[in-house]
Amino acid sequence: ARENAIFASIERLRTFTLFVTEWSVHGGEKFGGKHGTDKVKASGAKKTGEQVLQMPHVSLSEVEDIMAALSDAPFVRTPRFAFDTVEATVKYSSYLDRQEQDMESWRKSQNLPIPPNIVYDRATFPSFKEEELEKLQRHRPKNFSEANLIGGMRPTSLVSLYHIITKKAARSRGQKGVTTSVPS
After folding, report:
1. What is the pTM of this model?
2. Which residues form the tRNA uridine 5-carboxymethylaminomethyl modification enzyme C-terminal subdomain domain (predicted)?
């Protein structure tokens, strides 16, 4: 029942749309800026209840108040037992999507090689614990899958290692394409 209530509430938010100016007229400036501005009117943009709820300082109860006031049919509000979950799910969905993309990128990079000549020192990896640097130096993982198997490695350190290695690889690719001309 809880899952159904959450799904139904989010679906109502996704399917209810108003022009930005209408959200602003009914909810105030925090719902889309000053209503009546030429820029907003010219855009003719519509937003769903879900998109409006993702805005800072906008609450689910405020969005549902507007939806209820403008609905032709009797409006079903989110039940109290699902209210906080619906609000948090919508508010943080962009963060969850980004985290999912990061995880997918991490899964795809498991076989990405780690250069064998990399120096694991404080200058290159200032945020690493000394123990992590020692373990990386001792084990010399060939790829991120092997690095992930080293006990005591923090996920943040592995992500940092990934970013440092991919940035160095991108810089070296960029330098290979650069040619210098010598005046004759």
Report:
1. 0.58
2. 90-163
